[in-house]
Write a structure and sequence with these properties.
alpha/beta, 32% helix, 7 helices, four-stranded parallel sheet
Length: 189
């Protein structure tokens, strides 16, 4: 069946496309987003995405956590991370749009509480680098093997999964954002 420009395309089969929008305000040697792009493991988001196709935007300010209920949307539009410095996160202008409104960037979802395994923020709650954020997103969307492969080439990549093993298992088994929030409350209690 052919799909015209006005007809939404069917859900993508296969792996979730990883998208990285580089802001460029972080340290080049510590920039995992740049390395993902350079290695061909992620791509820049399209300037003009197909109509009705929106990625899942990993937004630390979103109310709703990412869950396996978002997998179909991620297969259609991809999983988008904004690669920027933690020190300037609020000033990027890429977050704070209305959830689900498509501005900016897509369907806003936050990652649930996870601990950083990267050398720059090791042990800090929710201060993940771009590679860790995308790997966590893949894991929670059901692409667990690919998530592990994504971090294999980064310092601290293996420790990210060992530090967060219990939390990732709980979050991945949750059916939707509400169940992920319940898991967060249990784990942080």
């Amino acid at each position: 069946m052919n799909y015209s420009a006005g007809t939404p395309s069917p859900p993508r089969e296969g792996p979730i496309r990883l998208l990285v929008h580089r802001v460029g305000n972080d340290h080049p040697k510590a920039c995992t987003g740049r390395r993902l792009l350079d290695r061909g493991l992620a791509q820049a988001p399209p300037r003009s995405p197909p109509r009705g196709v929106r990625p899942i935007l990993l937004d630390p300010y979103a109310k709703t956590p990412i869950s396996r209920a978002d997998a179909d949307a991620a297969r259609r539009g991809g999983l988008l991370a904004i690669d920027c410095s933690w020190n300037q996160l609020a000033r990027t202008g890429h977050f704070g749009g209305a959830e689900g409104s498509g501005t900016p960037g897509g369907i806003h979802r936050r990652l649930p509480w996870l601990v950083a395994g990267n050398p720059q923020h090791y042990g800090r709650l929710s201060e993940l680098n771009t590679a860790e954020a995308l790997a966590a997103g893949l894991y929670l969307l059901g692409e667990t093997d690919r998530a592990a492969d994504l971090l294999a080439g980064f310092p601290g990549g293996g420790s990210f999964f060992s530090i967060n093993a219990r939390a990732l298992a709980e979050y991945a088994s949750a059916a939707d954002g509400d169940a992920v929030e319940d898991a967060e409350r249990r784990l942080l209690a």
